[in-house]
Amino acid sequence: MKTNYTDLALLLLRLGFGGFMLTHGIPKLQMLSDPSTFGDPIGVGPTVSLILALIGEVVAPILVIIGFKTKWSTIPTIITMGVAAFIVHAKDDLGTKEHALLFFIAFLAIFLAGAGKYALDGGKSK
């Protein structure tokens, strides 16, 4: 008898990477009191940059964790980590940009594979 653990693996990916992403995003909530201290890597202003980062590092990961519209929910995090890896840390060594790249790859994999059956959407995330 062959057992397929794909849905369990997708759940572990969602919980693990979504949860660890929250550890980067939640501390940024305190910056809302003075967003001028946040960087502006794409030229939209520090307040908009902070809001976009919070969407990518707090709101979207929560949706990914619960498996709600998972494929759509990964997109803000993929973009945020792409900006972090390829713009913010563009000139840094691989060790510095490694976290952003790992999150980028993991959320891209979740985007491609979907949520699996252990999700609020029951694996029907589009």
Question: Could you please describe the fold and organization of this structure?
Answer:
The chain is mainly alpha-helical. The chain has one domain. The chain is 63% helix and 0% strand. The chain is globular.
Main attributes of the structure:
mainly alpha, 126 residues, single chain
Average pLDDT confidence is: 94
Low-confidence parts, pLDDT < 50 over ≥5 residues?
Answer: none
DSSP summary, beta strand count: 0
Shape, per Cα inertia axes: globular
* Structural class computed from helices and strand pairing: mainly alpha
> What amount of the residues lies in strands?
under 5%
Number of domains: 1
Report the radius of gyration as a whole number of Å: 15 Å
- C-alpha termini separation: 31 Å
Helix content: 55-70%
Strand and helix order: HHHH
| Total helical segments | 4
Major beta sheet, specifics? none
In brief:
The protein is built from four helices and no strands.
List the helices and strands and how they pair.
Layout: H1 6-25, H2 46-66, H3 70-88, H4 94-113
